[in-house]
Amino acid sequence: MKDDLQPLLPKVRRPGRYIGGELNQVVKKEAGVRIALAFPDVYEVGMSNLGLQILYEVINDLPDFGCERVFAPWPDMEAQMRQTRTPLTALESARPISEFDLIGFSLQYELTFTNVLNMIELAGLPLLAAERAGLPIVIAGGPCAFNPEPMALFFDAVFIGEAEEAIVEIMESVREFKEEHGRNADRNKLLAALSRIDGVYVPGLYSWTGGYPLVSQDGAPATVKRRVITDFDKAPIPKRPLVPFLETVHDRCVIEIMRGCTRGCRFCQAGVIYRPARERAAATIGAAAKTQIKNTGYEEISLASLSATDHSEITAALQEVREIGFSPAWRVSLPSMRTDKFSVEIAEKIAGARKTGLTFAPEAGTDRLRRVINKGLTEEDALNAAKKAFSSGWTRIKLYFMIGLPTETDEDVSAIALLINKILEAARLDLGAKAAKRLKIAVSVSSFVPKAHSPFQWATMITPKEIAGRQALLRGDLRSRQVELKWHEAASSQVEAALARGGREMAPVIAKAYELGARFDGWSDHFSFETWRRAGVEAGIDIDQAAKRKIEPDDALPWDHIDCGVTKAWLAKEYERSLDEIETVDCRSGSCSQCGVCKDGIKMEIRS
């Protein structure tokens, strides 16, 4: 297939997306079971995904298993592939992915769903799981898998939880099937076997008659429980990360220092589905960083987690990593920091020879709204963090906010601008007018989208008109040239919300949108709301109503058969507390809030 692909490369932008051959790539000529890790976005985005890097190494370290990669082709390459009838192939071997035993999709974002369908069709496979025979098995995982129903008809299986924990079991089950029956045998026996693996959901074994909850059949479990790594310090860390030829979104080494979060922000799905918080030891982090830098040549390493400054050994971990010091340009970044935990000591250990930028997420403009979302931060925390950053030599910070949160008013929106202006004024007072002129504040404002398995899963979303109005209000209040303001398009957030809380009734909408040409919907220059609106009309679904629909706490939900570990009753209680502006204490330092996740050997792992 390399010979078939080669003539297409001069006809597309960035041919490096499709050639493979990167440093640390693994090519196996022989393997009992092969999986193609499929990321439904462009190469530069997919290669920045840490989960892909982890699974790639875990699988390829096993002698009889082979793992390769495939990414969504950009529209120019798709056009060439369709014109020449070239199937979708894996980067490592240029083998058609239809010849693999498993195709594993990573579902990170609802607006990649049409790319999934495009990749399945370009592979030469039927879009509907019920119409496929034999191998490959098309399986999905990732955050969006926690509400699998909008895409359930297109997947043979869906994995719920942390894939490092179960990928070997899944591939062993496929190997047994192949050895006993061959590639083209009746797949129902394999799907039944997969459904018996904890964390594996087989949609075809659950009947849907238009309502919820779904009913399991043929021995499938009534509830699918997520898989969780119980000793995170010993969980796999890539030793030889792939080094792309192209500049990627996150072009650096990445060490995940903590998984999960104890803060309980009520809008945050990740803070629920990755519970409980589990930390790696500072020594483990330092050793992994040294190995990655040695095997990649990168000069930057990111210490990743949902809230890096919450790590109980963050100062020691930073010191371990800083001491690597392979070059004067060496630097460390923390992609997620809380303003109340930021200190001069942390700033100094991050800085190194180059000060790039710092990122903080106040999320809301007022203390009242931060109580509603359980952020646990005050305006004073944000001001103090900014002052510390400026006094330590940073001249650029990035701030994340959300609009459209439950109970939000125009006053809350205007308070975002007031807070930013207070930060600029504080800088002028502390640094002097001349030095303060060098400061830049990048403000990113996203629209709140209710997500499954979060306390705000029952909340309604404001309309695109309301979003546009609040964006205009904020834009009018922020006129400083030192502030760069960016926001998400309201229409794409509407589609995201409709998919995030939808059920199997959304499958025809997704299929129709794909048929009408929807691709790369997460990219503003490719997204078309009219395409989705038309798809909804033809499928009998009003996208606007689906996005903003109000759900009551006692309603049956499309994802009720997916057990994320946290109880539905606790989520409902948190929703009620939000409306009363009552904060829930962080269980790291306070009492247990009885969310239900710490059971059956699963517990919080905090180093000190």
Short description:
The chain is an alpha/beta fold.
Walkthrough of the structure:
This protein has 608 residues and is of the alpha/beta class. It folds into two domains: 2-225, Rossmann fold; 252-488, Aldolase class I (TIM Barrel, Alpha-Beta Barrel). 34% of the residues lie in helices and 13% in strands. The protein contains 21 helices and 19 strands. The chain has helices spanning 2-5, 43-46, 50-60, 75-84, 113-122, 167-181, 188-195, 270-273, 282-296, 314-322, 344-351, 367-372, 379-391, 410-431, 433-436, 464-477, 490-500, 507-515, 529-539, 543-548, 568-579; strands at residues 33-39, 65-71, 102-106, 137-141, 157-159, 200-201, 206-207, 215-216, 224-225, 253-256, 258-259, 278-279, 300-304, 331-333, 358-363, 396-403, 440-447, 483-487, 562-563. The strands form six sheets. Strands 2-1-3-4-5-6 form a six-stranded mixed sheet. A four-stranded parallel sheet has the order 15-16-17-18. A three-stranded parallel sheet has the order 10-13-14. Strand 13 (300-304), helix 10 and strand 14 (331-333) form a beta-alpha-beta unit. Helix 5 crosses helix 18 and helix 14 (410-431) runs parallel beside helix 16 (464-477). The longest helix is centred in the C-terminal third of the chain and has 22 residues, at 410-431. The model has no long low-confidence stretch (mean pLDDT 93).
